[in-house]
Amino acid sequence: MFTYQIIILIISLVAIGLGIKRYHEDNMSLIYFVAWIFIWILIILFSIFPGISSSIASIFGFGRGLDTLYIFSTILLFYIVFKLYNKIDDQNKRINDLVSELAIYHEKKEEDE
After folding, report:
1. How far is CA 44 from CA 33, 48, 75, 108, in A?
2. 8 A C-beta contact, residue 69 and residue 46
3. Of 13, 19, 12, which Cα lies nearest the Cα of 33?
4. Rounded to whole angstroms, what are the CA distances from 19 to 32, 38, 81?
5. From CA 61, how far away is CA 50, in angstroms rounded?
6. Is there a contact between 19 and 37 (Cβ–Cβ < 8 Å)?
7. Buried b vs exposed e over 37-62: b needs ≥16 C-beta within 10 Å?
8. CA 8, CA 29: separation in Å to the nearest integer?
9. 27 CB contacts (<8 Å, ≥6 apart)?
10. Is the pTM above the cut of 0.90?
11. DSSP secondary-structure letter at 1?
12. What SS3 class is residue 23?
């Protein structure tokens, strides 16, 4: 094993351990936990068996396996950013609605007094 493979293996195992810890503390839903474990297992597999990424690259017509990993990682990151943007937008709408309701409630309360 090369040094980079050992480092990636250690980082991946630590990440899996942190995911398990967060899941047991109810800080992570089951869907995100399974996705987290799946991604880190893929990273372990790609680091131990680098030929897998080359095989996938040839299937999709890319030159090198690393190019394939970069492209799929970029697509995944764009998807995550899009999901986070939508959650933040929904949260902003809910906060605005709550502030409006509180303002109306306090205004009515002051009128009653």
Report:
1. 17, 6, 20, 60
2. yes
3. 19
4. 9, 11, 20
5. 17
6. yes
7. eebbeebbebbeeeeebbeebeeeeb
8. 25
9. none
10. no
11. -
12. helix
In this predicted structure, the answer to whether residue 60 has a pLDDT above a threshold of 90 is no
4's CB contacts (< 8 A; 6+ apart) are 47
User: Reduced to 3 states, what is the DSSP secondary structure of residue 93?
Assistant: helix
Give the chain's length. Answer: 113
- Reported in sequence order, the residue ranges of the chain that DSSP labels E, i.e. its strands, are none
| Other CB atoms within 10 Å distance of the CB of residue 68 | 22
**47: amino acid identity, one letter:** S
pLDDT single digits (tens) 26-53: 999 999 999 999 999 999 999 899 888 8
Give the pair of three-digit tokens for residue 103.
């303002």
Q: How many CA atoms lie within 13 A of 58 on its CB side?
A: 4
Under the phi-then-psi rule, with left for phi > 0, alpha for psi from -120 to 50, and beta for the rest, what region is 2?
A: beta
